[in-house]
Design a protein that fits this description.
Elements lengths: L30 H13 L3 H5 L6 H15 L3 E11 L3 E11 L6 E13 L2 E4 L15 E7 L6 E2 L7 E11 L7 H11 L4 H9 L7 E7 L5 H8 L4 E12 L3 H4 L2 E3 L3 H6 L9 E3 L2 H5 L1 H5 L3 E7 L5 E8 L7 E2 L4 H10 L6 E8 L5 E7 L11 H4 L9 H11 L13 E4 L2 E4 L12 H6 L3 H11 L1 H10 L16 E2 L5 H8 L5 E2 L2 H13 L1 E2 L16 E2 L2 H18 L10 E10 L2 E10 L2 E9 L9 H15 L36 E5 L2
Parallel strand pairs: 6-14
Antiparallel strand pairs: 1-2, 2-3, 3-4, 5-12, 7-8, 7-9, 10-11, 12-13, 15-16, 15-25, 17-18, 19-20, 21-22, 23-24, 23-26, 24-25
Helix pairs in contact: 4-5, 11-20, 13-15, 13-16, 13-19, 15-17
């Protein structure tokens, strides 16, 4: 495809520095005066005056100089006077040309030459097309030609393509076949609900016999009535174009692609994008726009009377587009997405590699049943973890010396700390062998609250930090490393031990904690191979302490979630329910083999009194990992205008959903 700049300004300049007051009708006493007068008038857009300094027909010369501006779609044009060689009644002058081809395009610099001759009116430029450019012959004109790169592919860790190649319809024109280019392009723009300005910029400077794609539309949005209306415009036509367009998985991570001709897109996405280009609106498509789209090879060419290229006068090679290699695993991603299908509200599942922190999957399902393309709360959400945070609290208790692995850790029915009452709904199972591992397994709210003073806020925050919470790690996409903002009161610390009161996490940050327990080392996450910020160093954990936490998570699955152990290797994990801003949050955090994962469900508290939806989705996820995920049902995204992927723009920084801010209002055990 052949992009052209989005906007131009009228030709003007200040490159010739000269003082001159002679009028065009005054005989030119020297070649210098004639050359300077001609160049200054041309530079300032006074083409009729410039033509008067030549031997050509004034009307034809002025029209040619006007055409040069349109043929190059110039933003500005300036000149510098060079050497002049004089002979007997003749002279040759050199001059430097600086032609700004406009937004997103290069500046063309070349040296021109013009012959002069002495006559009754003094010195005049001997007119021919070579005055415009030395290599321009009779009957030839200038044009700007573009060759744009095919949009690159986004790949998973095994090289599998994650973006579906689709056929779209390119609406465009053959400039030389149009009866009235401005009228025809304007009519086409109106049919497609586009701004005609950027489209006209491209058409004016294009080779007349080359098809210029201006607007892209998905084939599903192209009706026969529209095709008939376009065909009725002289010079308008359509062509099929193949584009890596729609994510086959992980839409919130990969992102949307849009055509930039649509004026609402150009106002929302920064950069010098042009009619017919494609631009990533969000996700990796946006972050790695330059790598995926590359840039066009631009050529200034000469054309003959039939519109055929006779010479390439200047060329600027563009950047090649390329693929982006991610850490995602397409099979695990499909399993994650399928596991969320029965979620009654918003749901998120993040899976990471135990040994490296590589993100294997990041799935989202919205309450309307869609996967969404901009809701990245699996990575950026800010949620109260509730009882799943006892994984961190248990490790902090061990590291601080507040409790030893075999020591008794009583779990009463109720305790009061700092005026706050903490209650276990049912602690009967905790009366036998009340160790730290068992209290973790049965999520003893009272036991962890009672340990809070001995652990201390500093030790809890330190352990959380070494597990990546509230630290400086970053991802190729916006991601939330969590927050530890423990208050000064005793009740605040006791609540923080149980994952409330200033403790906020994302599903990604909890999946990384599960991976750290599995591996004995916390690793910063990665999403794109060899790209993005330098990861922070891994954090080694004490193996004896970690083994106690593993045992608690092992017992939690065996005693409370035995259905999870029906799909291959043993599963270790923790589950909890809590509330935030009137929304029930169901969590499961754990690992199986080399895959650690976190599941979060945001559901209505009034309809979730029986099922723990995160555990149900975790079971489905493990089933699909073991037996394969069903193939997703193909859908064709559409947008309000019918263009290519015109959708909501991605947001910057850590995001939240309706239930991701505010204080926890209550917590229940699983």
């Amino acid at each position: 495809m052949s992009p052209r700049p989005l906007g131009r300004v009228a030709a003007a300049g200040s490159g010739v520095v000269m003082a001159l007051t002679l009028a065009a009708c005054t005989p030119n006493p020297s070649p210098e005066v004639a050359v300077r007068s001609f160049l200054l008038a041309w530079q300032n857009g006074d083409h009729e005056t410039a033509a008067a300094y030549t031997t050509g027909d004034p009307g034809e010369v002025a029209a040619t100089l006007v055409d040069v501006h349109e043929q190059l779609d110039l933003a500005s044009l300036s000149f510098g006077l060079g050497q002049i060689e004089r002979g007997d009644g003749s002279a040759t002058a050199e001059f430097d040309v600086t032609a700004d081809l406009g937004i997103g395009d290069p500046t063309w610099n070349y040296t021109g030459r013009m012959p002069l001759e002495w006559g009754p009116d003094g010195w005049r430029i001997t007119w021919s097309p070579s005055v415009v450019h030395p290599d321009l012959g009779e009957g030839e004109r200038l044009a700007v030609s573009y060759e744009i790169q095919e949009r690159g592919q986004i790949l998973d860790r095994e090289g599998e393509a994650l973006v579906t190649t689709e056929s779209v319809t390119a609406f465009g024109v053959y400039p030389g076949r149009m009866e009235d280019a401005e009228a025809g392009v304007t009519e086409l723009a109106e049919l497609l609900d586009e701004d005609p300005g950027p489209l006209l910029d491209r058409v004016r400077s294009a080779p007349p016999e080359q098809f210029q794609p201006l607007v892209l539309m998905r084939d599903a949005n192209v009706g026969q009535a529209l095709l008939g209306q376009v065909a009725a415009i002289p010079g308008a036509d359509t062509q099929a174009v193949e584009i890596n367009l729609t994510p086959s998985v992980a839409p919130a991570v990969l992102g949307e692609v849009a055509g930039t001709a649509e004026h609402r897109v150009s106002s929302r996405v920064p950069g010098p994008y042009q009619a017919g280009d494609t631009v990533g609106l969000n996700g990796l498509q946006n972050i790695f726009q330059n790598e995926l789209a590359g840039s066009a090879t631009t050529q200034v060419v000469s054309l003959d009377a039939d519109g055929q290229i006779t010479d390439v006068l200047e060329s600027w090679r563009g950047d090649l587009s390329g693929g982006i290699a991610t850490t995602l695993d397409a099979g695990i991603q499909r399993s994650a997405e399928a596991a969320l299908e029965t979620m009654p509200g918003n749901g998120y599942l993040v899976a990471v590699d135990v040994g490296s922190g590589d993100v294997l999957a990041a799935a989202a399902r919205q309450s309307d049943g869609t996967g969404g393309t901009t809701d990245d709360a699996a990575l950026t959400g800010s949620y109260a973890p509730g009882g799943v945070f006892t994984i961190v609290s248990a490790l902090a208790a061990l590291e601080s010396g507040a409790v030893t692995p075999e020591a008794e850790m009583p779990c009463g029915y109720q305790t009061e700390i700092g005026g706050q009452t903490f209650t276990n709904p049912d602690n009967g199972a905790l009366q036998v062998d009340p160790t730290l591992a068992r209290n973790l397994a049965f999520q003893c709210t009272v036991g962890f609250a009672d340990l809070s003073e001995e652990v201390g806020a500093e030790a809890l925050a330190d352990t959380a930090g070494r597990l990546g919470l509230d630290t400086e790690w970053q991802l190729a996409l916006p991601a939330n490393p969590g927050r530890m903002d423990i208050g000064d009161g005793a009740a605040d610390l006791a609540m923080a031990m149980n994952g409330d009161q200033g403790v906020r996490v994302s599903p990604l940050s909890m999946a990384l904690i599960a991976a750290a327990v599995a591996d004995g080392t916390w690793n910063a996450p990665s999403l794109v191979r060899e790209e993005g910020p330098t990861p922070i160093a891994p954090t080694e954990l004490d193996q004896a302490d970690v083994e106690v936490v593993r045992e608690g998570m092992r017992q939690a699955v065996v005693q409370r979630m035995s259905l999870l152990n029906g799909y291959g290797e043993e599963v270790l994990g923790q589950a909890a329910r809590t509330e935030q801003d009137g929304t029930a949050l169901h969590w499961f955090v754990g690992y199986q083999g080399d895959v650690a994962f976190a599941v979060l469900a945001e559901v209505d508290p009034a309809v979730t009194l029986v099922n723990q939806h995160a555990v149900s989705s975790a079971a489905s996820f493990l089933n699909y990992l073991a037996n394969g995920a069903p193939e997703p049902v193909a859908t064709t995204p559409t947008d309000g205008t019918g263009g290519v992927g015109q959708g909501a723009v991605g947001t910057e920084g850590a995001g939240t959903t309706a239930a991701t801010t505010g204080e926890t209002t209550g917590q229940t055990g699983f």
